[in-house]
Amino acid sequence: MTTPTLCVCNAVDTLRDFAVRADGVDELLSECYAQQDQALFWGPLEKMLITYEPIGDLDWQRTFLGLDGVVNLSPAGRTGSLFADMLADPELMAAVAAHAGPGRRLRLIPHTTTADLRRFTEVLRTRYGVAVELPESPPRQDLRDLLDTKTGLRDLATDLGMTDGTCRIPPGRHCAGKHEVPAAVRAMLATGAPCIVKPDRGEASLGLLIFRPGDDDITERLAASTFYDEDPVVVEEFLDGDISFPSVEYMVPANAPPHLCYTTDMLFEGATQLRGNVTARELRDRWWYRPLTEGGLRLAKEMQRRGYRGRFGIDAIGRDGVVYLHDLNARRTGSSHVHEFGEHLIGPGYLDTHAVGNYDFYGLPAGLALPEVLRRLGPLVASPRHADRGVVPTELTDLPTGRLSCMFYAPNLTELHQLIVSARAALGLDR
Questions:
Q1: Are residues 77 and 149 in the same domain?
Q2: Do 51 and 105 fall into the same domain?
Q3: Contact 189/195 with Cβ under 8 angstroms?
Q4: Beta 355-361 vs 404-410: how paired, if at all?
Q5: Where is the ATP-grasp domain positioned along the sequence (predicted)?
């Protein structure tokens, strides 16, 4: 008997504590609420999804993509911890327990493993008699939280000797708090290199500060930022010029060797605004592929040795034949669903025949509804169950705010990028 799957899409939990320091925090969190929709493709297609709010236009997505086995529920409250909100909702907890079926067992896939997840699974066990499998959750919360920091990645890579070679961390240093940052910035600028200042637990490119030789407003810009206090800070060389933005995701099982899930090419708008990801067989021929995947596997093996379990992603920058590791996300990432979309809807060997990606479009009219999006995109919209290329509107929870994410698939990377350009024009965003 197959164990039923429960996906808890707690993407906001990862960001909330840090995002509250930002102006426009509600808008930032709104994007994370939309990110919950990515879980439609996590794990098996038949599952129960728990989201902060009901997934937008789910009925259309069920019909269009054949997702008949998806059940979507949301708790009555919203406190910033989706697991805590679930525990406070007796009706939802009863539905989760019923989803376990006669085997009284669930396979739970979260976006992020949090301390409240442990409390949630214990309540299911003691109060509802439901055992929970956690294939993507590290047993040690402190290890997960440490690895999910900028200093955690730098320390891990340093311990493995990855401060040199073709896959390494950028030159830089830790600062105990913002009071140490001006001296660290000036020291790096004195070498002639620009630098980037990163909050240790930063997410979604929030709070990043870039300084270049000749800048003399370091203290003022730090003081003006709401993202720096006495938490640790990383100061690294800022890598620009002719660069690429690859990323990888690995799975670290409990009782088997870690393995590569996929690689992507990250699509940025400007220096720090991530807009999408693409994966394709052509990426295996990029110069950065071998050093990044081999270096990532070194990290994965060491993380497993230390007790980590589950998925993690690495964002990198490639320049002049060197891959620089600049972020490690000890959780599912914003491209996990791209890979699983391809596996589920095209087939397990989809990379032999297709390129797949996602892209976020901003600047659409507020209040826009799905029928108008479908009208504008017209024949570009097609299901991979019936076509070899097309556009699939997804993450529709945030559509009323003027943001639309779409999945793209095509026989190769060139045609996929052409589809993105065509969709942008059809949506009226080039005017």
A1: no
A2: yes
A3: yes
A4: antiparallel
A5: 154-359
